[in-house]
From TrEMBL, chain A:
It holds the Pfam family BPD_transp_2. This is ABC transporter permease. It is found in: Cell membrane. It comes from the Bacteria. Keywords: Cell membrane, Membrane, Transmembrane, Transmembrane helix. The keyword ATP-binding does not apply. The chain crosses the membrane at residues 13-34, 55-77, 83-104, 195-213, 245-264, 276-302, 322-344. It is a multi-pass membrane protein.
From TrEMBL, chain B:
It holds the Pfam family BPD_transp_2. The keyword Heme does not apply. It is found in: Cell membrane. The chain crosses the membrane at residues 12-30, 37-58, 64-85, 92-114, 151-168, 198-217, 278-294. It comes from Chelativorans intermedius. Keywords: Cell membrane, Membrane, Transmembrane, Transmembrane helix. Its main location: membrane. It is a multi-pass membrane protein. This is ABC transporter permease.
Length: 356, 305
């Protein structure tokens, strides 16, 4: 018995070793292609991901990790309920856009403006997610497709609004005006890390409690694990779908608001789309097999890859897109280890497609 | 609006938009029929567009560019096969990873090979010229649509009946359908469904590659970061809608292509670019909704599904 287990562990270790060797091989090949000095690139990577004067780069990594983890939690709620909501990007953009515009035009004391804008952003994100849910429930558009397609209109709407009616023309860039300085999220004392990470942490905590300690969350997860069973025992599947999507969207909207008030202090065209926050969030949650407590770690991991790569670009001339390649290769190797929930619901989708 | 549709230059621009969607969707059809859930067409298409520019730039021939594009697409198909078929990764996860991989790799290589940021154009990139079809010029709408297009458009048109026959008659086509509908039967016949699916993925890569070549060395002569711009996703939708049947795909591709080129046209009339950019996606949603209503109505009346 014992040897059997040992050999299984050994096999596991070898397969991980092979995967790591592949990833390293791909990266070295890519770096050799641009003739980058390996040692310099590696030290620039580490320095930029975790170092910097007074750890300023580490703070940038943490702040990005918060956004990625936020998107990961948002998508995790949907995935665990068996809902293929890949429209996180649209919900994020809706949130960021509404947060910036609300803060620019709402009157009142700063704290009220901040709170109301964040709330508006969450409503906007939830609304955009609900749209995808309604399309599926009432108009027969599969969620996977509907949520994805909805990413594009909001992206262009946001782009139009900050390019024309609400553009900060004097800046010369396609971006809105700065939101009032009094609404900016403060830094933690003595650091350059904004407190947005606390909002994300609160949202994650809420998601975990909802998912594991409330009846609704239990029902939603049941729907994800076995939709046939959920329907048989008479759960209101449609209502659960909409509730879950609304929560996912609200968290995505919150992430958009945190990016506005904590990081950019305005809405810049493409600021939430270009860094692939939503897609990185999806792979961050898949990397750890949708285990909630591990999501911050995997968010940090991917954020470090991205900020580290930016450092390699500056110091060693390696194009920063190497980060995307690295992320993709890592997730490919981990893909075969994804938790059963996703597979179960993709089987449901295949089965549902034949019946429709 | 109607005048616009009969405007020869508008009609002539439709195939430019139809071709990439049609080729990618035919590739997607191979996977769909073989039982491979492939939503990485966007990545395949992007890789094809990039490889086409590389091949054409270094060889000076658009045909070798197209060949390079096919190879680029096949390479992505092999990656998909390795991680989905052999290692058993979830197809959706593998697809998402491949889309990210294509976006990262093309931008990285754009800088590594051509030292270009964002976009690369060079007189050395040889593009496809129009093919003149004699005897079509006098037709009012069909003339400009079907005459003087890139060879890849005619290839795509020919590919539709070929694919239809392939699925109906050819041994591999039948096996592909068996792999999708009844893999156990295929095993009983001594054929490995996994191998058949591998062929389907390679064929899909090659077709998507050609679609990408249409984007980068037929419509224009340059590569732009992310130039597939969601067309692969529209092809995915087309495949899901038609369940991979070639003739309906042709129809859908023409609908999407027309909307795409229409939105390009309206931009010239002063509508902000952002609104015309979102038209293809809204049109896709509209088509999805219409078809689902139509289907629901039919099944409600007791018709065949």
């Amino acid at each position: 018995m014992r040897t059997l287990r040992e050999s299984a562990v050994l096999r596991e270790a070898v397969s991980w070793g092979v995967a790591l060797a592949w990833i390293a091989g791909v990266l070295f090949l890519l770096m050799a292609l641009v003739g980058a000095p390996f040692g310099e690139a590696l030290s620039a990577f580490l320095q930029n991901a975790f170092g910097g004067r007074r750890l300023s780069y580490l703070m940038a990594t943490l702040s990005r990790a918060a956004l990625i983890a936020g998107m990961a939690v948002s998508v995790m709620l949907s995935f665990r309920a068996g809902l293929f909501n890949i429209g996180g990007e649209g919900q994020l953009v809706a949130g960021g856009l509404v947060a910036a515009l609300a803060a620019l035009f709402l009157p009142g004391p700063p704290l009220f403006v901040l709170g109301a804008s964040i709330l508006a952003a969450m409503v906007a994100g939830a609304g955009w997610a609900l749209l995808a849910g309604l399309l599926q429930l009432h108009l027969g558009v599969p969620l996977l497709v509907g949520s994805l397609l909805l990413n594009y209109p909001i992206r262009y709407i946001a782009s139009y609004l900050v390019a024309h009616p609400f553009r900060d023309v004097q800046s010369g860039m396609v971006q809105s005006h700065l939101v009032p300085q009094a609404t900016w999220l403060p830094y933690f004392p003595g650091t350059r890390l904004d407190i947005g990470i606390l909002f994300i942490a609160a949202a994650s905590l809420f998601a975990i409690i909802y998912s594991h300690f409330t009846l609704h969350g239990y029902h939603a997860r049941m729907n994800g694990l076995s939709p046939a069973f959920a329907r048989t025992v008479g759960l209101p599947v449609g209502k659960l779908t909409l509730q879950t999507l609304a929560m996912s969207g609200a968290i995505a909207g919150l992430v958009g608001a945190v990016a506005v008030f904590g990081v950019h202090h305005r809405y810049i065209d493409g600021m939430l789309v270009q860094p692939l926050y939503a897609w990185t969030g999806i792979i961050a949650v898949l990397l750890v097999g949708m285990i909630p407590w591990a999501v911050p770690l995997s968010g940090l991991f991917f954020a470090a890859i991205q900020t580290g790569a930016a450092g390699m670009e500056r110091s060693a001339g390696v194009p920063k897109e190497i980060a995307l390649v690295m992320q993709a290769v890592i997730i490919l190797f981990v893909a075969s280890r994804v938790s059963g929930a996703l597979v179960a619901s993709s089987e449901r989708r295949a089965g549902g497609g034949e019946g429709a | 609006m109607l005048e616009l549709l009969f405007d020869p230059s508008f009609a002539a621009s439709v195939p430019r938009f139809v071709t990439p969607i049609l080729l990618a969707a035919l590739g997607g059809a191979l996977c769909e029929r073989a039982g491979v859930f492939n939503i990485a067409l966007e990545g395949f298409l992007l890789m094809g567009a990039f490889a086409a520019v590389v091949g054409s730039y270094f060889s000076g021939s658009p045909w070798l560019g197209a060949l390079a594009a096919m190879l680029g697409g096949v390479a992505m198909g092999l990656v998909f096969a390795e991680f989905n078929l052999r290692r058993g990764g979830d197809p959706i996860v593998v697809s998402i990873a491949i889309n990210i991989l294509a976006a990262g790799l093309t931008t990285y290589l754009l800088r590594a090979i051509f030292d270009a940021m964002g976009a690369f154009s060079d007189p050395a990139i040889a593009g496809f010229g129009p093919v003149s079809i004699p005897g079509l010029g006098w037709l009012p709408v069909l003339g400009p649509v079907f005459g003087g297009q890139s060879p890849l458009f005619y290839l795509a048109l020919v590919a539709v009946p070929v694919a239809s026959l392939f699925f109906a008659r050819h041994r591999l086509g039948l096996r592909i359908r068996a792999a999708g509908e009844n893999p156990a039967g295929l095993v009983a016949g001594g054929v490995s469904p996994r191998r058949v699916r591998l062929y389907a993925l390679m064929g899909c890569g090659a077709l998507c590659g050609l679609g990408g070549a249409q984007l980068s060395i037929a419509n224009v002569n340059l590569f732009v970061e992310n130039m597939s711009a969601g067309r692969g996703w529209i092809a995915v939708v087309a495949v899901l809608l038609t369940r991979g049947r070639p003739w309906p795909l042709l129809l859908i591709a023409f609908i999407f292509g027309t909307v795409d080129s229409l939105s390009f046209r309206v931009q010239g009339l002063g509508m902000p670019q952002q609104f015309t950019d979102m038209m293809p996606y809204l049109a896709t949603l509209a088509v999805l909704i219409t078809l689902s209503w139509w289907r629901r109505g039919r099944t409600a009346n007791g018709g065949a599904p």
